Amino acid sequence: MPVIKPVYTAVATAPVSSGGVVTTTVSPVTTNFFATVTAGDIAGGVTTLLAASFVDDANAPVVALPTLSADDYFNVYVNGVLQQASLSTLTPASLVLATTDISVGVPVTLAVASFGNTASSITTQPTISAPTVTINT
Questions:
Q1: Within the chain, which residues score under 50 in pLDDT?
Q2: Per DSSP, what are the bridge partners of residue 134?
Q3: Range of the domain at 58
Q4: How many independent structural domains does the chain possess?
Q5: How far apart are alpha carbons 99 and 93 in whole angstroms?
Q6: For position 133, what pLDDT does the model report?
Q7: How far is CA 23 from CA 20, 32, 120, 128, in A?
Q8: pTM of the prediction?
Q9: Residues in Cβ contact with 9 at an 8 Å cutoff, skipping those fewer than 6 apart
Q10: Any domain includes 40
Q11: Which end of the chain is less crowded, N or C, counting CB atoms within 10 A of the terminal residue's CB?
Q12: DSSP strand E in the chain: where?
């Protein structure tokens, strides 16, 4: 006796999400460092300010400059003028400026902005519909 298998087709809709609120809190932290260029900082076509050359906002000596994450950035001001980002390299040990056109005694300000204190949470849960499945015979 032959076996007859029924064949069914089905159509489904995707679930739909509506509503829901995500709250994101961004708490940037900015830190400033200050140094004065000395004759020993200028050599080899660059000006290198060692971390120990800087003081922080509280006028405390700096042991190491910040290590930047992907969410951080820094600005360099020489004699109060913002410099192009491509002219500076920041490491925990030093700030290197790709120029020797800086005079001895000129102030350098390093401003670091950190966005590591960012958090997101769902404050209102979304409503998600169940998929609709239609079976055609």
A1: none
A2: 11
A3: 25-121
A4: 1
A5: 18
A6: 85
A7: 10, 29, 6, 19
A8: 0.71
A9: 135, 136
A10: yes
A11: N
A12: 9-12, 17-18, 21-26, 29-36, 42-43, 46-50, 55-56, 73-78, 81-82, 88-90, 94-97, 107-114, 118-124, 127-128, 133-136
